[in-house]
Amino acid sequence: MTRAGAGDPRSPRVRPPLREPSSHQLRLFLVLAEELHFGRAARRLFLTQPTLSQQIRALEDRLGVDLLRRSSRRVELTPAGQALVPEARELLAAMTRLQEVAASFAREARGHVRIGAIGGEAAMPYTVAILAELSAQHPGVTVEIRAVDLADQVEALIRGEIDAAFLRPPLPPVLRGLHLATEPRVACLPANDPLVEQAPLTLAQLADHVVVDLPAQVREWWDHWTVNPRPDGSKVRFGPQVADLEAMLLAVARGQAITFLPAAAGRLYPRPGIAYVDVTDLPMSSAALAWVPHHREHPALAALISAARTVLRRDNHLAEV
C-alpha cells in the first residue's frame, strides 16, 4: 500500500500494531471527510494543517487502512474511508450518549434525608408535590418522615435530629426556609361553646377565653399564633400546657381551653366535641420548608431544597423566609 504526498509516490510503510482509535481522532476525521480539504478542516478545528495531517495518519495507522487519497490538488475518501464515516458517526453518538448518562448519574444526589413534619404537614399538597419532585430528580435519595411535636420543632433541627422540616412560621433567625403556601387561620372551640353559632367571630369576642399553652421554648412562636398581645393591648390568658397537637385538641374537646390552627386542620383533624370557626381579624397562616443554613451542603438536603424550588417556580410562588 502506498501513499501520495504533493504528487510524489512514497515507498510502502510498515504500520505499527493495530490499536483502537481515539474519539478525538474520529472527530477530526469526520470534519475532514466533510471538507475534503486539509486547510479548511484545520481552520474549523483550530489546528495547524501539519497537526491535522499527523493525527489523520496516526488514525490510519491505528486502523491499518488508508482513509484518504491525498494529492497536491485534492483529497478523496478511499472506499475504506467512505465505509468508516457512518461507523465513526454512530460510535461518537454512542459515546456522547454514554457521557450524558454518566453525567446524569454524577449529578444525581444520593443519601438519606430526615424530614420533620408537624401534624398534618406531611399530607399537605405542597409536601406531596415536593417529595414527588425529589423522587423524580434524585431517585437515589431516600426520605424518612418524622413527626415533630409543637414544642420541639425547631430544637430538633438545631440538634441535627432532622435535616429539614415542614413547619409553620415565624421561623427563628437560626433557620432558613422557603415559603410554601398561605391559608387562613381559624379558632378551635369546644363544639358546645355558644360562640360557635355566632361565627364568623372576632378576636374581641374571644377575649375571655383561655387559650391552650405551649412550653416556654416556643413562647415567641406561640405568642404569634395566639395573637398575644391582642390588637387592643390585652394579654392572652393561657390555660393547660401541652406539647403536641393531639393533646391540644383533647384539651379543647374537654372544654379546658381554645386554640388557633391553620384552616386545613378542620379537614385533617375532625374530632367529636370540637368546632373550627372562622375569625375575621386573625392573621393568615403560612407554611415553610425550613433547614439550618450550614447544613444545606448535605447532598440529600440540597436535593430536597432544589426539588422544593422547582415545585415553587412551577407554581409561581417561590419566596425565601
TrEMBL record:
One of its GO terms (molecular function) is DNA binding. InterPro entries: LysR_HTH_N (IPR000847), LysR_subst-bd (IPR005119), WH-like_DNA-bd_sf (IPR036388), WH_DNA-bd_sf (IPR036390). Residues 1-20 are annotated as: Disordered. SUPFAM superfamilies: Periplasmic binding protein-like II, Winged helix' DNA-binding domain. Coiled coil: none annotated. The keyword DNA-binding applies. This is DNA-binding transcriptional LysR family regulator. It comes from the Bacteria.
